[in-house]
Amino acid sequence: MPFDTVADPTPLSPRLGRPGTGTCIIRGLQRRCPACGMGNLFCGFLTVQPVCAVCGNDNGAYPSDDFAPYVTIFLVLHLMTPFLIGADALWTPPFWLEGLIALPIFTAATIALLPYAKGGVIGFAYAMGVRRRSADQDRLG
Q1: Tens digit of pLDDT for each residue in 16-62?
Q2: Which of 19, 54, 59, 125 fits 130 for a cystine, CB–CB 3.0-4.6 Å?
Q3: Helix H segments across 48-94?
Q4: What is the pLDDT of residues 59-96, one digit of tens each?
């Protein structure tokens, strides 16, 4: 009789503990649940899956509000600026043509990187234990 190769359905057993910060960030960058690494973190383009279907982790409790767009803009500008400088050094296009070419590239790069940055920020928040305040906490002060 062959052995069953089904994955362990409870990856967060007490003996394993909480994953490390780097592991959580990498899982978030892969758009996976930072707790187990198997469930999807998003149910849409940027909509966070409130509860992981695999481990039951409350992924909606970890904020990424404004930090994910800041990280995305930082990365896009630092990755694309050398190409703009190189293009100016090799080829001197008119300003309007350079803008006509560069702006769609910047826009596409920003939209493409945003879900990954948001996942990484959520993974970091999970690893650091940063959680949203609930409505009950707000009322109690």
Answers
A1: 678 999 999 999 999 999 999 999 999 999 999 999 999 999 999 99
A2: 125
A3: 67-90
A4: 999 999 899 999 999 999 999 999 888 888 888 888 89
Biggest alpha carbon–alpha carbon distance for the chain? 72
Alpha-carbon span 27 to 19, nearest angstrom: 10
- Tell me, yes or no, whether 54 lies in a domain: yes
**Which of 122, 114, 110 shows the shortest CA–CA distance to 39?**
122
Residue 2 lies in a domain: no
Distance CA 76, CA 105 (A): 10
For the chain, what is the domain count? 1
DSSP string for 81-122: HHHHHHHHHH----HHHHHHHHHHHHHHHHHHHHHHHHHHHH
Residue whose token pair is 């990280």: 71
Amino acid identity of residue 136, one-letter, is D
Measured CA to CA, the distance from residue 34 to residue 24 in angstroms comes to 5
Domain membership flag for residue 46 = yes
Q: Is residue 15 part of a domain?
A: no
The torsion of the CA quartet 110, 112, 117, 120, rounded to 10 degrees, works out to: -170
